[in-house]
Amino acid sequence: MKLKALTLNGFKSFADKTKIEFQPGMTGIVGPNGSGKSNIIEALRWVLGEQSVKSLRGGKMPDVIFAGSQTRAPLNRAEVVIELDNSDGFLKQQPPELVITRRIYRNGESEFLINQKKVRLREIVDLFMDTGLGRESFSIISQGRVEAIFNSKPLERRVLIEEVAGVLKYKKEKHRAQKELEETTGHLNRVADIITELYQQKQPLEEQASIARDYLEQKKQYDYFDLNNLVLEIKAKSQKRAEIQAELAKIKDLVVKHSQSASKQEQLTANLHQQQQQLEAKLDAAQERLVELTKQKGYLSGEEKVSKQTREYQELQRKDTSDRLEVDQKNLRELKEQEVKLEEQLAQVQAQKADYQAKIDRLTADANIDEATLNEQVEKLRQELFEKSQDQSALQSQHAYLKRESEHSQSLTASALAKHKELEAAYQAAKEKKHQAKADLLAAKETVAKLDQRQVELTSEVSKYQLRYDNQKERWYEASDILKQAQTRYETLKNVATSYDGYYQGVKQVLQAKGKLAGVIGAVAEIITVPQEFSQALEAVLAGQLQNVVVTTDEAAKQAINYLRANKLGRATFLPRNTVKRRALTTKQRQILASQQGIVGVASELVTVNAADQPILDYLLGTTVVVKSLAEATVVARALNHSLRIVTLAGDIVNAGGSMSGGANQQRKIGLLEQKQQLEKLAANIDLMKSKLATVELEGNEAKQQLTASKQAVQQLAPKLQAAQTKLQQCQQQFDISQVELSHQEQQLRAEAASQEEQTKASMQAQTELKEVVAKLDQLEQAIAQLKEQLAYKQEFLNDTRTSQAKNQQKLTKLKQELAVVEERLQSVKLQANEVANQIKRLSENIAKAKERLAILKQEQELRHGQVEDLADKQAKVKQEHAQLEQTVAKMIEQRKTLHAQVAQAEEQLKRASELKAAAYDEQSEKARQDSKLEAQLDGLLTDLADRHELSYEAASKLENLETDIDYVKRRLKLLQLGLDELGDVNLGAISEFDRVNERYEFLAKQQDDLLAAKAQLEKSMQEMDGEVKRRFKQTFEEVAQAFEEIFPAIFGGGRAKLSLTDSDLLTTGVEIMAQPPGKKFQTLTLLSGGEKALTAIALLFAILKVRPVPFVVLDEAEAALDDANVARYSQYLQNFEGKTQFIVITHRKGTMMNADILYGVTMQESGVSKMVSVSLAQLEQ
Fold it and tell me: Which residues are listed for ATP binding in this entry (predicted)?
């Protein structure tokens, strides 16, 4: 087979229709990167059936359509056509000329044609399967495919050998057989489950059917005698009840008479008791008050005595404290007078001491100065006065110099100050400029920080919403799976319900023909709604009645019966709405139930039904009572004299008449009510799950919208952040410039400030020195004046000293003696003054405490005086009340004695009246009980007559051939009952149900055999396919391995290589490649260099082509990783396949181009549109 041509029209960059014709040999396709060369290969893969959009470098399949350019509008369709010459019959059962077309439209619709005939994509894929020309076969080899060979795992390389071996169709067939086997196994499991269920139904039904036939025969006789017995019993009990009711009327009159008498006496006794109780209450209160007053008298007397004693003691304390206070106050006044005198005396003595001390000091100083010393002092003062005069002259000269220097410095300082102001203004301007630049920089940083923070927040939101979206998707899948499971279970149960599995044959046929038969409403199980907690009880009590068919009229029932009889479809029981009569409890029965324990309710009141069917419900359950347990059921049954049917929540039954049934099976069958409840529960769950699924889907969409919004916000933020960062850089540069300028201005200002500071220091120094000189001059002038004054004083003193020294010595001695006497007196006065001060302090404290104590005593005396008066008043009142109360108590005691006698007499009369009333009531109750019992028995008998025989008493009593001997009737009934009891519970529908179940069981058993045979055949076919796959794989592997060992040294110019299997199982083994290029050791492919790996992979592909030649091979830059030498070997080796295989080579390598038989160039002369051009081999060589 040969590839004749490939036509592209609107496919990717090939906007115009482009046809590429291929000749035998090697066709090269060249062109710059991005020109559209690879689009040719993708077009070839696409037309051969490629379905992966990702492998075509697209997002969705319509992406392969030309998307438009700056000068061209987008196209709405893409088409690729491949023309093949199949004259050699390479593709079996195909014509010699084969044209395959694939189209796709912008709306996603696709067309596939073989020789202009529309086909499916699968037909194209199957056409090339195992031919080596498929979309993923080894006939299309790209650089990525070469890399995939040496990068893939051994198990992934196995696919290459399988493609060569042509086993993919076997694997596909096996996969298809595997699916069929799984489906068959699923069918088998379902059939087996149904057969098991039917078998479990069939066994007991077979036995039940036999028992049912026996039961029907005995039941017919029993019903006759039971009817006879009921008629006789009703007649006898009716007569007995009439007699009791006559006696009861007489007793009721007597009860009324005794009741009225007893009521009057009871009222009289009650009044006397009330008076007695009121008197006793008043007497008790008066006596309690009397005791209380006696206690108050004693208490008030004691309190009065205590208050008087306390008042007397407080008076004594007050008087004693007052006397001590007067003494202390007198002593205090005397001490203060003494203290004043001592202070005056102390001041006089201290003044005397000071005067004496001053005199002594003067005389001592004068005595120490002698004449020589005075002469020396006078001379010294003259010398010092001379020196000071010289210093004054020098300072006056310095003062004149410093004054001139100060004036010059002030002039220089004024000039420097002006310059400093100029520099200060420039500095402030630069500082303001820096401040503004800094503010701009901070603002830019803040903006960037905020945007960074916002980016972090948005990124976090994206992660959060992505996680939420993923969680919602997971929840959706989980909810969807649960919903599918529930729907499957619902459909299964619904199918069971609609096919009426579990119903008697006759009932099933009527219900299935509901559309044909007029007036059929449905089975009882269908029309009633039973709460789950009561389903077991009602399933047991209704049993086969659940399959009774409700119809509108008796005519509809007749029509359905005729339908069953005419077609021999079985039997059914019908409940016509217009003839079925209600059954209900009597008032008496309800009263009895109200007094019993464990009552759940009347069964008909626990079930919901349409209003039209309420009579039917009352007929079935109106006289059935539901109780909690069997123990309570037996108690209630006895209380009702076994007149009603009672069922427990567990399904145990106490029938009217006393018979009981109950127990449990080892494997409980799901009843019709429970089946209906499960169906309703599943329907509710499905609605709930749909709602939940919708909620989850809505939340998922919200999460997706939030995720999309967050991603868009991140994208929108990016340019803002970029602009802010750019502005931040600009502000940083401006800030740096302003900082440099400010630093320059600051240096100039500092230099000028330093110069100014030096000038100021010099000026200040001059000022300071000038001031110092002025100060020194002032000091010298003062010192000179003082020296002159001292010199005059000393000179005069020297003259006086010479005459007065002797007199002063005598005065000094006398003054020292007088001073010693004064000091002793001063010490004595100080001691006296300290003692007096201490005494004054102690007396002052005592006086303050005494005054405080007197104030407290005065308050307590006033309080105590008031208490004494209050106690006296209270005591007088209590005495008066006590005397009056004693007289009242005495009168009440006399009244109590009189009333007690009256009460005793009234109680005796009441006792006699009550006894008469009780006797009459007892007799009335006994007769009423007998009447109620007979009424209940009659109701029970009438109910039994209606339930068991569907007759009223009037109709039954008119029947002919009834026995009149009740004893004979009861004996026959007992014998028949024993026979029926031995049979136990009988399923009357078991006969028809057994026939239906057995028929279905046999049908499904045959179907199971057919499925088992089909399963065995599928397993056998799969084993045969596995054997064929193993055989082909082994044979092909050995051939490819042999060819690989031959081709590897041919391409590498030496060395060796080997293919090996990683596992003995030919169905799962991988393929390992070992190679030894020249000069290297024998090692795995992964340890070779990149070029060696690529050439080894190419050698393997050549080996495959040698074993399984294909009509054409596409090489898409497969040699890209090879160096020039290896490219030459690669291109030369391609010549070995000449005549067997066409090569379409896309390449950039000159060595490959040189060996091409024909070259096509791909270029984009127009932007975005690929064109095919011819390439001159001569130009290529140049």
Answer: 32-39
Q: Note whether 342 and 836 are within 8 A (CB).
A: yes
36 among the known binding-site residues?
yes
Query: Phi-psi region for residue 31, left (φ > 0), alpha (ψ -120 to 50) or beta?
Result: left
* Same domain assignment for residues 8 and 135: yes
Model pLDDT for residues 224-238, shown as the tens digit of each residue = 778 788 888 888 888
Among candidates 1134, 1104, 1095, which has minimal Cα distance to 1040? 1104
Q: Residue 1177: what pLDDT?
A: 54
Q: Judge whether 39 and 59 are in contact, CB under 8 Å.
A: no
* Burial of residue 753, with CB atoms counted within 10 A of its CB: 0-12 exposed, 13-18 middle, 19 or more buried: middle
Are 124 and 203 in a shared domain?
Answer: no
Distance CA 406, CA 617 (A): 135
**Could you give the CA distance from residue 483 to residue 653 in angstroms, rounded to a whole number?**
40
Cα separation, 1069 vs 926, whole angstroms: 99
Task: Give which of 930, 937, 933, 927 is closest to 235, Cα–Cα.
Answer: 937
Q: Is 35 annotated as a binding residue?
A: yes
Q: Is the pLDDT of residue 519 over 80?
A: yes
Among 32, 80, 22, 103, CA closest to 1170 = 32
DSSP 8-state symbol, 75: P
Task: Tell me the average pLDDT across 939-947.
Answer: 78
Answer yes or no: is 979 a known binding residue: no
Question: 121 with 51: CB under 8 angstroms?
Answer: yes
What would the mean pLDDT of 340-361 be, rounded to a whole number? 72
- If you average pLDDT over each of 358-362, 368-372, 427-431, which comes out highest? 427-431
Selection from 847, 1103, 978, 891 nearest residue 331 by Cα: 847
Of 87-96, 598-607, 759-768, 1105-1114, minimum mean pLDDT range: 759-768
With beta carbons less than 8 A apart as the criterion, state whether 227 and 949 touch. yes
Domain that holds residue 49: 1-139+1114-1182
How many other CB atoms sit within 10 Å of the CB of residue 817?
9
Q: Known binder of ligand: residue 1055? A: no
* Same-domain pairing of 39 and 53: yes
Q: How far is C-alpha 770 from the geometric centre of its chain's CA atoms? A: 92
CB 738 within 8 Å of CB 437: yes
Cβ atoms of 328 and 850 closer than 8 Å: yes
The helix/strand/coil state of 359 is helix
pLDDT value of position 550: 93
Strand-pair partners of 178: none
Q: Which residues pair with 112 in a beta bridge?
A: 102
33 is in an annotated binding site: yes
Q: What are phi and psi of 169, to 5 degrees?
A: -70, -30
Residue 38 marked as a ligand binder: yes
Q: Which residues contact residue 90 at a Cβ distance below 8 angstroms, ignoring those fewer than 6 apart?
A: 1, 131, 1111
How far is it, in rounded angstroms, from Cα 451 to Cα 184? 63
DSSP string, 297-341: HHHHHHHHHHHHHHHHHHHHHHHHHHHHHHHHHHHHHHHHHHHHH
d(CA 840, CA 1037): 135
Residues 6+ apart with CB under 8 A from 971: none
**Secondary structure element (H or E) that encloses residue 262, with its range:** helix 168-368
CB atoms inside a 10 Å sphere around CB 701: 12
Residue 685 known to bind ligand: no
998 and 1132 assigned to the same domain: no
Domain count, the chain: 2
d(CA 1104, CA 1070): 16
Is 32 assigned a ligand-binding role in the annotation? yes
Q: Identify the DSSP state of 14.
A: B
**Do the domain assignments include residue 989?**
yes
Average pLDDT over residues 544-572: 89
Q: What is the CATH number of the domain that holds 1180?
A: 3.40.50.300
Contact 1085, 1100 (CB under 8 A): no
In angstroms, how far is CA 453 from the centroid of its own chain?
Answer: 28
Residue identified by tokens 């108690």 is: 635
pLDDT at position 1178 is 46
